[in-house]
Amino acid sequence: MNDLLLGKLRDLKLSGIIKSFDLRVEEAIKNNFSYQEFFEILINDEVSNRRINSNQKRTSKARFPWHKTLEEYNFSYQPSINKRFIYNLATCEFVRKKENVAFIGPPGTGKTHLAIAIGLKAVALGYRVLFTTANEMLEDLYISRADNSYQQKLKNYVNVDLLIIDELGLRKFNQSSVDDLYEIISKRYERGAIIITTNKVFEEWPRIFYDPVLATAILDRFVHHCHFVVIKGESYRMKQREGAIKALTDDSKNESNQLDNDN
């Protein structure tokens, strides 16, 4: 590729074609491609490159704390979960319909993993996603009042296609936090999908919210179009820790027995 052509491609922001041009020229000569076939291949390269870049940008903006996929989730360890139902959620039809999902279960049972995995599927399908913990989101909105950026911050949580709120219920809320959560839930009602992970069943929500009236209003809007996933299994992290402790104990016993045998 000569410098003049390279400059024009850069001006047109055709980075996908720039990346593959030399390789495609060699391929076209080797396989005797027609001009149309060669042109179609270059256009496909550009489209593919833009799709990848767009996906990477959406993933970055989603602010996932980890990269967790459905394929990595150990469904055999949590038999209470309907695997087919989870994969149906992963089609993100609920996002298109602007519905909600609630993952309810004890800590360590994989609620966050499943929420992130579905969020990644949504990103891959072209949806705008934002991941946050309940405390981070409400703290962000509380601080924003000091510099008059509240409305803009609120839009950040309202305007995405899918908002994932992790760890709802770990701490009790004050009046300001409940007000802000109500604003987000009410503004997204039937206008944007939400995933919430929580270790509290809905009957417990009024006790963690400062205002029982607003708690009822929040629940009413959230559960109206909601898919529920209740996980009743044990903590995967605790199971791993127990396994590690057992392994250390067994090693210690083996070393002790070996010393006794040596003596």
Structural description of this entry:
- The structure is a single chain.
- With 263 residues, the chain is an alpha/beta fold.
- It folds into 2 domains: 3-62, no CATH class; 70-238, Rossmann fold (3-Layer(aba) Sandwich), CATH 3.40.50.300.
- Helix content is 60%, strand content 11%.
- The protein contains 12 helices and 5 strands.
- It has helices at 3-11, 15-31, 35-62, 83-89, 93-96, 111-124, 134-144, 150-158, 175-188, 205-208, 212-224, 236-262; strands spanning 100-104, 129-133, 162-168, 193-198, 226-230.
- A 5-stranded parallel sheet has the order 2-3-4-1-5, with helices on both faces.
Looking at this protein, list some descriptive labels.
alpha/beta, 12 helices, Rossmann fold, 60% helix, 263 residues, five-stranded parallel beta sheet, 2 domains
Shape: elongated
H/E series:
HHHHHEHEHHEHEHHEH
Can you give the mean pLDDT? 89
Give the strand order, joined by hyphens, for the main sheet: 2-3-4-1-5
| CATH top level assignment of the largest domain | Alpha Beta
> Could you describe the largest sheet, including whether it forms a barrel?
5 strands, parallel
Overall CATH architecture of the largest domain:
3-Layer(aba) Sandwich
- What is the CATH topology classification name of the largest domain? Rossmann fold
The end-to-end span amounts to 78 Å
Low-pLDDT runs: 242-250
From the alpha carbons, calculate the radius of gyration and give it in angstroms.
25 Å
Name of the CATH homologous superfamily of the largest domain = P-loop containing nucleotide triphosphate hydrolases
Strand content: 5-15%
User: What structural class do helix, strand and pairing data support?
Assistant: alpha/beta
Number of strands: 5
Number of domains: 2
Helix amount, in percent?
Answer: 55-70%
